[in-house]
Amino acid sequence: MRMKQKSNFIIKSILYSVFVLIILLVISMNQLNTVILKKQEYQDYIKEWASNEIGVLFEYENIRFRLSMPGPEIIFYDVDLSVLNPEKNLIKADEIIIGFDIFDSIINKNASIDRFVVKNSNFLSSYADRQGFYIQGLTLEELINVFRLPTRENDIEIIGYDIAVNHSQLDTKKDMSFEIEELKLSSLEIISGQLKKIGGDFSLLNISNSDYQVNKSIDLKGRLNYTNNANGWDLEVEDFYTQTETDRRPLSSFKIHSGKGIGENINAIVINATFLSLDDLGYFITWMPEKYDALYSQYQPSGTVSNFSIDLSLLQQDVINYNFVSRFSNISLNIDSKKIYFSGLTGRVHANSNGGNIEINSNNLHLGLSEYYSNVLNFSDANGTFFWENINENINILTDRFSLSNAFFESQSSIKINYSEEMQLPFADVQTDWNISDIKAAMKFLPIRKMNPTLFSWFNKSFLSGKAINGKTLLRGELSNFPFDKDNGLFYSETRISDMTLNYSEKWPDIFIKDIDLIVDGMHLYSNKNQFSITGNIVNDGRMDIFDLRNPVLILHAPSQESLGAIHTFIKNSPISDFFGGYEKNLELKGGLSLDFDFFYPIMDKNSYEFFVNLKINDSSLEINNFKPPITKINGLIAVSRNYISSNSLTAKFLNQPIKISLSQNQEVNDPYIFVADIKGKAKKEDLARNFEIFDEKNIYGIMDYFASLHFPSMNSVQHRPFKVTIESNLKGIGTDLPLPFKKSVELEKSLTTTIEFSNNDRVKSVGNFGEDVRWNFNFFVTESGWAFDHGAITLGENNYPSAESRGLHIRGKTNKINYDNWMQLSSEEVKRFNIFDHIRSVDLHINDFSFYDQSLVDHRFVIDRGANEWLIEAYGSQLDGLISIPYDFLGDDPLMLNMQSFKISNPITNLGKKTITPDSLPSITVKINDFSISDRNFGSLRADFKRSNDGLRASDIEVIGENFKMNGNAGWVIDELGNGSSHSFVKAKIISNNVEETMEALGYQPLINSKDMNIDIDVKWTGGPSGEFLSDLTGEIKVEFGNGQLNEINPGAGRVFGLMSLVALPRRLSLDFSDVFEKGFGFDEIKASFRLENGSAYTCNLSLKGPAADIGIVGNADLKDQNYNQVALVSTNVGSTLPIVGAVVAGPQAAAALLLFSQIFKKPLKEMGQVYYNIDGLFVDPSVEISNTEQFTLVSDRSGCLYESL
């Protein structure tokens, strides 16, 4: 509480003191006015003091003191201020007021001036060329520096009110003058030598500049306000306008605002103006910096701008930001040293540092391009908006719609322009749609100063009338590369012209064009779609070309379609008939002929023209008698020119592909062929298949080149020869999936030649070759439906054979490889199409590699002849040797017979029994083979007689006799009784052997059982036919019995193992576990087993071995397809030995079933014997044998169904 009372007391005391001080100052001021006004010495002292403080000579008439809010003031009346160096009168004023900072004066005990006010004064101004304005004979900088007082620590504020400026003289190097009607400053403030504020009215009359406008002047009036503060300065010109003798500009305002950044530097400027006339700038150009004077003289701007606004920032940076908006009207500029000129441009612009847009809406635009045109181009309407942007020093300009039009022309364009500093000229992308109502008037759009004068004259004189509609022009590329000769840009223009008269040459009649589509592509001018007439000859879709407008040669191709009678009359009365000597009688030509006019006119050398009159074959077709398909779309001509008559190449289509036809006359005197037509073309696989029945689209692919010749015989030749066609090709590009030797890849080149002779109306002969190892010689009858094969031969290999004269197809020779399966897959369809087997009469082939049903025969010869009811096939080779007879009719009574000395195939046949063959579709089969083997399984002799029945084939007495074994049984392949189309095969047989080791070796197994007694009973069946893929479906029963003998150890990797006898896996392990029992080998008294086959797995519950040292029983299954075991063996020794502890039998319920099962197998109790269990797992060739137990034995027995059988 005491502190608060104390504070209140201090504050009240200060306020009372200040109030008393102010009263004392007022009293003092009154006393000073009284004393000083009466004492001259005080006035002299004050005058000396003021002169020293202000820095100028001070003279006045009267003085007084007063107290104002800023502080005490001294008022001087009728004051003269002057400077000594140079001696000049500076200011005459009614009043000058000097103000003091009261607190600074009290603290520093010194009168401190902080205000200098001038009222009601007149200044004399002048102007010197390039130096600017002078006030009272001093430059503005010198005048301001008068009031800079470096000896003073405090700033002095200089303030002016109601100051008039009288302009007395003009000193310029140019003839420029003006009169100042009024220049009155309503305010002026200078602080610390800096102009802080200035305001007033101005009126300048009769401003003239003889360099800009002779005998013309302009008045300039307005009000100006300028302020300068710590944040920047502002300049405003209001109620501003200019006026000439004939026109007064609209009242406008002009404002400039600046802002400071860091430090004292101006960093931003904003300028706004409501209206400016560019035409008035010329009056003031003398006052502008010299570089702007040069720019003004170069561009010569004209027109007006309104609503002008520009915002500049970052002025102290390398790159200044700006934002500019303005409207403009009737702008005129000269650009690039007057190479580009425009006037009448009206619109709006908005631009900033990153880009902008300009809207153009002009109704009287004039465009001058002096590098291209001698005259100014005038447009009554120009409308559109252009956008541009600055990206990484690149400038992009674009507009999607810019329209130009005048009395005879209208256009709409989309434009994209890109420019960077490294470009010589910008990159332009322009698309323009246009129409011309008067072609003749539009000739002024041709760039005369860029065109050859002769070419320009030709265009100007040739295009006499017409109009163009739907014109389109495209330009894309860097303009420095124009006209884009090296594909580095695009220049393309097209239009449709109608009702045009073209005077293309003084010596030729005019062309009256009804309609023409005219195109300019780069420097290429052409038309392919048109309708015109030449002296009444109607031309549709003729051709006009100037390939290079820099070296222009007009090429005119005018086809005139006339009636055949008129053309025929023309031919009869011209040398053209000499080239048709009547040799066309073997041909049938259909279609039209026409008369063409071709004209070549070098515009630069008009007397060097050339012309051709062509007898042209138009889209005609040619059919060769007795040969199809026809040659279509034939186009060709016979030409007459100024200097010669000739025939040119013919083009056509054959097999739906373009071909070239070359006609030539035989120069050999005695040659029977006088005229040859050479054809070059391509053939696609689908066209070959469509037109020639020998080709199937599924077995041929690609496209090939070929060369063909049509030889026309001379009717007057003593040696009469038939009309013939020769064909040649390297076949590159076309491939076939036909079996060898006709298989070929696309890349491989292989020669094809053939000659087709048309002997007379009903005979055709074809001779040719395919590569070096396939040749043919065919003869056909000609019928109404086509060619019918009569006789001929196909020869494989290099050897020559005499021609076959007997009917049918004869195949002979030697070849490297033939795959019977591939040919049979083909034949199912091909036989139906061509009756191939009906044509074949004989075959005599030596084949190095012959494949059939996955078998491979090496170095065999086959001789095939057609018998009365069957094919007779003789095979000569190490694998097949004998006779095969195949009946024509499989459903007949004649059997298929194999009477072979040897029949050795490499592996089991796997593709019998598939859907393509069914057992009821086969004939009876009789087999007699003396040496039959499959791969390494040698069976010996085979005798079988399969009888055909309604449901398939059955053989009741099959006999196979090997060196040490014999098999007898029956077998068959029949349709299932279910009637669903499925079938199955079965075998019931018995095999006996007196030497098991040699039998196993003969059948391809390791000789693991040495015995002189083996009996095997087989009763099995499987789904499908007798192929090598039956194991997975095998069902039935097999019983095996061996007499006494010896087991041999498996040698992994040494070959197949007889998988049913897993006993052979035990000797190695038992010799380790029972070394004292089996030290002399693994002999046995007998082996017996029966196997139940289910889906390829053989299950046994009684595979047993009885021997002097031990008895063995095995249960489980052997997978015959995957060839692996899942079995358990029980070994019971018959002599004393030490059993492995882990395998010893222990009593218990789980062993009861096992003991019962084996008591039945061995026919004696097991309780007094020692036993051990082993698991047998893994592949047949390398099984794993490990110690097991009764639990595993019981589990495997149960899975195999053995426990059920023992109960």
From TrEMBL:
PANTHER family cross-referenced by the UniProt entry: PROTEASE, PROTEASE-RELATED
Organism phylogeny: unclassified sequences, metagenomes, ecological metagenomes
Membrane-spanning residues: 9-29
Every YhdP central domain range: 189-1185
Keyword Transmembrane helix: yes
Protein name: YhdP central domain-containing protein
Organism, scientific name: marine metagenome
Record key words, sorted: Membrane, Transmembrane, Transmembrane helix
InterPro entries: YhdP (IPR011836), YhdP_central (IPR025263)
Coiled-coil intervals, chain numbering: none
Claim: Transmembrane helix is one of the keywords in the record: yes
A Pfam family matched in the record: YhdP
